Amino acid sequence: MLLGAIAATVAVILTFASATSDPPKKIVSLNLCTDQLLLSLADPDQIAGLSPYARDPTLSWAAAEAVRFPVMSGGAEDAMMLKPDLVVAGRFERRATRELLARRGLRVADFDVVRSIDEAKRQIARMGAIVGHPERAEARIAAIDAAVARLRAVATRKGRRVLAVSRRGWIPGADSLTSSLLAAAGLVNAASEMGIATGGFATLEQIVAAKPDLVLVASALTMAEDQGQAFLLHPALQRLYPPEKRIVIPEMLTVCGGPMLAEGLDRLADVLARRPDEVTRVAP
């Protein structure tokens, strides 16, 4: 099965490589996830501009690298002023902006929201081919495959139910990248029992009623910096889910499907390897 997945990924790389014989020289990104794919796979002189969130260290795994490049507002005007020969964006955001750019004759490559490890590898392959560096994509994919193997080697057999809870009660659903990561670790996303498909907000009462064995959070903070974080520090959640019942993996490792997944998978493997019978947190 692993060989088949690798062969399929290589086929995708070759398909895009053959379709993009002349890589773009000036690329603009409108999306946090395409920012990070570009920063990992493109030459620096190919990157003309990045999204407003590119330098946010809480969301962008490549925030340190992003400081070298212009950050735009995310609107069509900024992109048009830079006169790129390619714009990369997320398919489900700023539709009017993407359509306007296309009407003005700019080439736009849309990238879907990643909902599995395999989808993440396909997107890496696609971007690597687009920018003219499929060999870099192959290396990134190989790193993810190696991290998946390390995680599966220590995966739990107990099928513990985990609920990932983000700011203000946002829950990644059953059809999400988070579910794919948990499944590789032998864990189950409890969001499926709550009827949450791709993602949605849940109340404190709904989370408590779901009774997950563990919660997955992005931070080990004990003091809230704003109302969004305060939700995670509610006394009810603190009592039911103390540190030993929380898996802590920074959001920048799970919000996008890209090279950062290798580190996210290794964080989860580290959790299981340290306490195979009692999943606990790993410090960010």
TrEMBL record:
<feature type="domain" description="Fe/B12 periplasmic-binding">
    <location>
        <begin position="26"/>
        <end position="276"/>
    </location>
</feature>
<keyword id="KW-0732">Signal</keyword>
<feature type="signal peptide">
    <location>
        <begin position="1"/>
        <end position="19"/>
    </location>
</feature>
<protein>
    <submittedName>
        <fullName>ABC transporter substrate-binding protein</fullName>
    </submittedName>
</protein>
<dbReference type="InterPro" id="IPR050902">
    <property type="entry name" value="ABC_Transporter_SBP"/>
</dbReference>
<dbReference type="InterPro" id="IPR002491">
    <property type="entry name" value="ABC_transptr_periplasmic_BD"/>
</dbReference>
<dbReference type="Pfam" id="PF01497">
    <property type="entry name" value="Peripla_BP_2"/>
</dbReference>
